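Hi P.,

Sorry for the delay on this. The queue was packed all week, but I finally got your sequence through. Input first:
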Amino acid sequence: MEIDENAEKLKSLHVSSLDEEEDESEAPNDDVEDDVSEDDDDDEEPVPMTLGFAEKPKNQWSLLRQYFPSKAGGIPAWLDPINLPSSKSSVCDFCGVPLQFLLQVYAPLSEKSTFHRALFVFMCPSMTCLLRDQHEQWKRHPETPRRSVKVFRCQLPRVNSFYSREAPAVDGTEKLLTAGALLCNWCGTWKGDKICSSCRRARYCSSEHQTAHWRSSKSSHKVHCRQLEIPGEASESAASNSLWPEYEITNEDEFEFEFDDAEIFNDNGPDNSLISRSRTDKSFEKLQTYFKGHGDTRSWASFQAKVAVAPDQVLRYSRFAQAKPLWPVSSGQPSILDIPKCNYCGATRCFEFQVLPQLLYFFQVKDDGQDSLDWATIVVYTCEDSCGGHLGYKEEFAWVQLASQREHPASHFLK
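Then the structure:
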C-alpha cells in the first residue's frame, strides 16, 4: 500500500518493513542451531537501526493519543482507547499488583491493517518480581506463563472509529472522534472497573490502587470523596505520585551519528558535534558504574563501542529481518528456541526493539538497596506477520537481561 502525503506526516518511530522486499524464507526457524552468539558478526553488513531518545515534550498535547506518540513514563496513550487488555493481563503474575507503564512505540507497517500500530511495554517496579521473572522466561512453552514484564501490540486500519483518516493537525487542536474507556483514577492506565462505594464516582482498576488513593498524602481520596467531581470520560492524568517521569521519545537514524569516535571524546573536536562532551562523559560514567565488576569485559566493550556515538539513546528499533539486539553482557542471552511463537497465529516472533538501561537514569531510579529496579536490556519480540484479529491488544514477548542476578540483594528472596 502506498502511504500518501498525509500519512507521512504522522509522528512515529517508524522503520519501513522489509515485508515487500525480503524473502520470507530468511526468517529464523526451529531448525537453526540453538545459539545466538553475535561474536562473529563483525563481517556482516550493518543493518539500519533507529535510535530513540527521551526528551521533555515541547508541547504536552503532542503526547495525547490522537497524535500517535512514542513516549516513556507517565500514562499510556492507548491506540485503541476502549478495548484495553484484560484485568488478568494488566497485573504482575507474581505479586498481583497492576503493572506500571514503561513506554510505547508507534510503529506502523505498510499493510492496510497496520496503518496505525503501537507497542506498549509494562512492568512491575519490584526487583524481586523481576528476578522471579528471570526464572520464568527460561521456561520453554510453559502451560501458564508468568511474567512481570508484558508487551501489548495494537493495530488499526486507516479508516477506524477512533481517529480521522487524515494526519492530525500539528497545532494541538486535533479532536477525538470517540471517548475512551473510563480509567483508574490512581494510575490512569488500566480500566476503572471498580467504583468507590461512597461517592460512586472514583474508579479503580484494583483494590490496591483504591487503597493507595485513599491513603495518599498528596491527593487523598479520603479527603475529597464526598465532593469529588469526575468527568464522564477517560482521564488524561493520574493521582499516583509513583509513576515514572514522562518523556517524549524522539528518533534518529543511527547512521547519522556514526562518525569517528575520536571526535566524541576529543576536547578539541568540532563545535558542532552531535553530542556534547559533558553529556557523553556523564552518561558513560553512569553506565560504567552500572556494569563495573561484572566480569563481562568483551560484551561490555562491544556494547560501549556501539552506543558511544549516541550514549543518551534509550531505545533501539529495527524490523529488518537481519536486525539483532545489542547485548550489554554475554550471559542471559536467549537462543532462537527460547523465543516463543505468536500465541495467536503461530508465526515466528522477530526482534523489533530493545530498551536500554539508560532509561533508568531518566526515570531517576535510585540504586538504594534490595528492591531497586535494575536491568541490562529489555528486548521485545513481535509476531513476524503482525497478525490481526478481534482482540484490541495482543500480548507479545519481552526478554529481560540482567547485569547480574546472583549479586542482586533481592535475589535471596528466590527459592
